[in-house]
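Entry 0007
Protein: Peptide/nickel transport system permease protein
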Amino acid sequence: MNPLRILAKRALMGLVTAWAVLTTIFALFTLTEDWVLSGQIGVARFAGENDPDALAEIRAEYFAARGLDRPLTEVYVDWLGNMVTLDWGSSMSTGEPVFPLVMEAAARTAAYVVPAIGLAVVCGVSIGMFAALYPESRVGSGGVATAYLLFALPGFWLGGMLFSLTLDGRLDRSPLLFDHLLPIGLTFTALLGGYVSYSRAHSREYATAEFVSLVRAKGASGYRVAAHVVRNAAIPFFSMLFTEAIGLLVLAAFVTEVLFGIEGFGLLLLRAVADRDLPVLLGGTIVVIAVGVIGTIVQDLAYGYLDPRVEMG
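Output (structure tokens):
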């Protein structure tokens, strides 16, 4: 299939997915009980305000401030159009423009997620392939065992305990350590075990293949042999890599940022849900969908490059 057709097809699927997801989120937030409004009503009643007219005025002011005092169909069409044109309006809780707010938070998350993925891929593929090509090697077995040990360690708990030392003054909160090195390290260890396991399993399928034996018989170096193996094992591994990366976005964006107080994408979305800040939540959803669509396009194009025999259609 022509790469342009792949791009068009995936873009169309992305638009349909975006519409379905945004519509579902809009319905969930506008057709269900508003816990923020319920909290304001509860505070007013606790203060002794039980006049129905006064409570109705609180509701009216709340909906007016959030632009929900119009028919829902009108609000839906306006907000959906704003999502498409990237005019995401302002945050309902802070009043800041949503688009730069979401982009800055996504950039802060990418600052530790991308390096962690890169390190995990390089180390995981190297360890897994070495263990597959040299199964009797103690170095390979030790590398696999170390990767599994790092995965099994309660990294987030250890990181949380280290961070707690900053709260009572026993340790200075270094931005380099808690905003970059620790998040990268925790994300790296969470991914490494899976990458080692997958790369070793898929490399084993080709480590004893006839073409690999032929390459070795011709006196090729270990690097050359590994290059032949990784080229054939790359497609299933690449599929796993993309899936793990999407799953990592949820893990890193929510757990890591809440743990270390990083003002990133996950913490932004959590606050948007708590505050029912619909513009921020919809804008964040657009970013997640865009990452998924772009990743799928790259994955499809990479299949044809890694193995020209693959029919991308």
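Curator remark: The two ends are 5 Å apart (CA to CA). The CA atoms of residues 239 and 299 lie 7 Å apart.
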